[in-house]
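Appendix B. Extra example for self-study. Work through it before the problem class; the solution is given directly after the inputs so you can check yourself.
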Amino acid sequence: MTIQEQQKAIIEEFSIFDDWMDKYAYLIELGKELPVIDEKYKTNQYLVTGCQSRVWLFAELDDEGKVVFTADSDAVITKGIVSLLVKVLSGHTPEEILNADLEFLDQIGLKEHLSPTRANGLVSMIKQMQFYARAFQLKSNVKKMKRDE
Amino acid sequence: MLFDIQQVRKDFPILKQTVNGKPLVYLDNAATTQKPVQVIKRLVAYYENENSNVHRGVHHLSQLATEAYESSRKYIASYINAANPKEVIFTRGTTESVNLVANAFDGFVNEGDEIVITSMEHHSNLVPWQQLCARTGAELVIVMANEAGEVGLDKFAEAMNEHTRLVAVAHISNVLGTVNPVKEITRLAHEMKVPVLIDGAQAIAHIPVDVQDIDCDFYTFSGHKAYAPMGIGVLYGKTIWLDQLPPYQFGGEMIEAVAFQKTTFNEIPYKFEAGTPNVAGALGLEAAIRYIDKYGVENIGKYEDELLAYATNDLKKIEGLRIIGDAAEKTAVISFVVEGVHAYDLGTLLDKMGIAIRTGNHCAQPLIDSYGLKSTLRMSLAMYNTKKEIDIFMDALKKVLGMLR
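Solution. Structure tokens for the complete assembly:
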């Protein structure tokens, strides 16, 4: 699934909930599906700084050149949203991640969590995911250049 | 009944709001309080009829504004029982008041000196002193609160010595609700000839404040935590101190005579009020304090204590819920955590149910750390809150906890 298709699927999944409580209950469930970060990376180095809930994020490049994210959070709602972000962005190339237009959070009514004043680290989380993508992109460009030489 | 709560609620237009389709239950009063129409109308009246710069012109409006501004100072001085209105300096709020004193104290503090504060200070009564120490080479001495959230007088006595230059302490803790024995602390400090600054940000709307009775050298508070507008606050200082301290900011209003070579400064309070002041704010602050005084701060305090006891009792029934701070003298604030539940999750879901409470470290990170926590939830009360609202809050809390555990 492309990033766009994945977002569309999530929007559809969420559209069945009229009640915010059901929506949040589902979000909390989704948090349980998050590919959890290896304990050894659950350190300050991998902490995405946010004021209230903590988010740890790790990324690696697989053999096919796709970025694989793992993460965790100590707050279950944050974890649910992180899980959504990982679902959407994980398994894609750095270029695809950098070009992604993440509008689904807005569309499923979770926009407020992306407000910079919310201080839950989600905005920094997205930035951090893009930062990883950028780093992998630069790395592979350097490799390519060396190969061409 | 202590006062007509329904009438009080009618006075605060914002309380009629709904949030996420639910009636607003505003329990974040330690962060800021809502404003009654009496205050809002005062601001409008000022801008409609009196707006002009103060202490400047001879014209009619300037005189009106100046009179109103100065009479607000007089009223506030008499409310806190200052010996003289000139001891009331208008600032932006507690933060600026504390910064003013901390900056002006540079010349009174040397390497090896000590500043004493408590572990329950808000960052605004901590960081300015930390910075003063960094500039001067002095040491910041922390009097630790016990598990209940109280600081013993004996601890203060131990912390002070001949190197102590100032004691700065909160009248009421914004996290724990503890009412500190500021009069006794001041007496103790004065025995050592040490001046005392009291951070009254959380006190002014809840308990009587009499600066001469406390005998503190400085007292600070913000208007917005006492039903007044944001951006106005007070630094009270004893004349003997204010006269000695150098100005903090420079510009118009605070000068006596200016030549290109030299400037002589105005007298207090103007020496500390550089630039055009927040006149509307000062008038709004007067209106707010008058509003409090109309009902009587003692009645308000008693009423809030009833709510506090009611809410505390209900909260204690919830399994796994731990109240942070259990001081014998406590008011208007309850901080708590629930085992296995993140404060952020709880706060987010409560917001969905129309309930405004604070989550986080409440700008008192070291204190929260000392309890081994990262964040707490805090409900904080004001005169317009009701038992019914606490019931709504409790129902919402139970519902939300059902989702989270």
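Self-check: Chain B touches chain A through 15 residues (CB under 8 Å). If your reasoning did not lead you there, revisit section 3.
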